[in-house]
Protein: NrtR DNA-binding winged helix domain-containing protein
Organism: Reyranella soli
Amino acid sequence: MPSTGPRPVAVELNAVLVALIDDEPQVLTLEDGALLPSGPFEGDHPTLQAGVRAWVERQTHHPLGYVEQLYTFADRYRESTMGYRIVSISYLGLTRERAAAGQHEPGWQSFYRYFPWEDWREGPPKVLARAILPRLKSWIDAVTDDARRQRRQRVEGNFDLSDWNEELMLQRYELLYEAGLVPEAGRRRKPVADPVPGEPMHYDHRRILATGIARLRAKIKYRPVVFELMSPDFTLGQLQRAVEALAGRPLHKQNFRRQVEQQGLVEETGAMTAGTGGRPAKLFRFRREIVLERAVAGSKLPLARS
Amino acid sequence: MPSTGPRPVAVELNAVLVALIDDEPQVLTLEDGALLPSGPFEGDHPTLQAGVRAWVERQTHHPLGYVEQLYTFADRYRESTMGYRIVSISYLGLTRERAAAGQHEPGWQSFYRYFPWEDWREGPPKVLARAILPRLKSWIDAVTDDARRQRRQRVEGNFDLSDWNEELMLQRYELLYEAGLVPEAGRRRKPVADPVPGEPMHYDHRRILATGIARLRAKIKYRPVVFELMSPDFTLGQLQRAVEALAGRPLHKQNFRRQVEQQGLVEETGAMTAGTGGRPAKLFRFRREIVLERAVAGSKLPLARS
DNA sequence: ATTTATATACTCAAATTGAGCATATAGGTG
DNA sequence: CACCTATATGCTCAATTTGAGTATATAAAT
């Protein structure tokens, strides 16, 4: 008979911890890149957020500038071998990293190792035309009539090379999963014979990673979160490269500066860079007060009279 | 000694279930408006979303058009009397309701019963100038120096009458809570002596409600979710009143139609309304295919050359 | 001296947005 | 019926915002 007490459930935390190292967007991983850092939710933390913060800072020895909840999963397949259910709560965290000592820090992996088709900084990734689109075409043609029309619309809406939308990253990943082009361990699905380029991860960690990056890509457009990834002083060029790294696409330099400056997000420190080759750049710092002043968001409704 | 098995945890689901009844945005409640519908997560559902959907549809006998996860709470104070921890996962759900039989359906309550300062459809709510702003002023003046400057900036950013931002609803609620102007049961805080107008709820349900409405207010601007609340055929006037009800502010009629039409979200049914007093209006229906075609989002980055 | 990089200032046309005028067509009223 | 009120719909126009350049400045490298 059903007990009225709590069902045995384990609460697990997953973190998508992001840093920029040498203009490359990186995520902290374990097991040679196959796992996101995860840990149990300890009972002695007052809140979930505090738990994540304490736990990540203990692991990385870096202060966590920004933490945001991503999503909670409790799917059926998420069961331990002991039979109890697992609830996974995932978080996005942003941290500041100095330039890498060597090539890259152990554990830090570039976003685009997992999603090579998402890096448009140097133009359209070849993997799209070469491997992904043809296979999506086959996937479309594997059915007929209305189902085919639906598949075609989804592919066209999410993979339009002539009008790429970097925010649709999660939806693209999910579509590739449905089309059987990316493997995902732990799900009951026939194994993917010939996956598309891009490293897989264990369990659904690649999906969680996609969720985190997609959220970040959306957020940098209306909230000043990039600054959590920058060192205190930076040039507008560095700031631009940071945004480009996250969004995965090149920006128009002059318009980027105009936007940043007229939003009043930064102020000059007075100092300049030196020895970078090319004209020295002014150094800026983020005006942290702005966060309090303008809790802005992107309105678009056609409002009426004042 | 600490066991390695799962800590006893109960998973609870909360729902912010929204419907429009007679142009009034309503939320389904229990206990005479003091509780959001909540229930345990049954182990026999494949996913959380399926659990919410089944459970809500069983309670309301209405199909749930749209479901979205809001937030997961596991705060310290969220403990049952039995000593185990409670994880609350809250959802936003949209459903279609016909016009009310009588005054309003039992259980359905207007948003603005809980947040009267958020309804700007008839201009600035008097409660703001009369009750809220003076008390926030006192709250600012209760401290000095930098703390006072910070409080002032937060109040000015979130309660600017001359530039009201309906999306900041959650932040405003949280500020009122911090300022001791709204009560919230279950939190260890001194009871609020003289709360500002607006019905309270048990536990943190009013906060969850604010989270849901704020999310909805943000979402209607870039996703066609309003249509989940409309009957299949509607006039542009009805659609506008629906958006106004959710956003809590009046819209410019001609610009609203322009926006809706040029986005290609709707198509004429061919029929017209009758007997409404005034010129008859064309009836429209939502073009559901559009969701597949354009998985749009609101870009704002200054992109570079194609 | 010239080339190559980067930084920064300024311009201009196209597109979007905010605000309003004008007209159409119903119901209600004296 | 003539007129008023209410809603719907079509269209215009100026202000702002955005996308895409051109032009110039200042460093390092050849």
Observations:
- Residues 260 and 266 of chain A are 7 Å apart (CA to CA).
- The first helix of chain A runs from residue 48 to 60.
- Chain A touches chain B through 69 residues (CB under 8 Å).
- The two ends of chain A are 62 Å apart (CA to CA).
